[in-house]
Amino acid sequence: GAVVSQHPSWVICKSGTSVKIECRSLDFQATTMFWYRQFPKQSLMLMATSNEGSKATYEQGVEKDKFLINHASLTLSTLTVTSAHPEDSSFYICSAPAAGMTDTQYFGPGTRLTVL
Amino acid sequence: GQQVMQIPQYQHVQEGEDFTTYCNSSTTLSNIQWYKQRPGGHPVFLIQLVKSGEVKKQKRLTFQFGEAKKNSSLHITATQTTDVGTYFCAKGAQKLVFGQGTRLTINP
What we know:
Number of helices of chain A: 0
Structural class of chain A: mainly beta
Oligomer: heterodimer
Mean pLDDT of chain A: 92
């Protein structure tokens, strides 16, 4: 089946630094990818929709200047958390719709970000 | 947007007991999806329900979609330790809105 990978799987950084997270579709193309955030013991919340070749669309309350999204190719979307602070510590998960099955999402393994 | 309410938040059972989690929406849903997330893992797609009154089974898992397409349930018969995890329902097509999840723990 379709596989979505994320890199890195975990990262620890100092407050004020920026962190880039990659999301790749390994055996299929994804013109759209989605970024979710999950705080401990909570549900997944959609942050933004990454669109290949165009600007990302952000959900209400998500700062686009803080969470930069770049969908550089049909298999890669990146999320950069700029000037990270401890409250940005979370589990960031991307997803991509399965080819030919628009209602089925494949999720990446997630990236656990800890900001000290 | 309209949320999907999921209950219970936690459920602890003895191995072999049954388990059910419920999702409710105030609006009619076009579809509902179910995911399982193991501790430390990512959500894994289980199933999608589309039709009113639909019932689907996957081994010990039974998924139901209400007649009014406003509620859904996931029932696990005779739980096993491998069933441990958080079960989420989600509405939407590509942009998913997740329920709060039900965390299932099992006493072996």
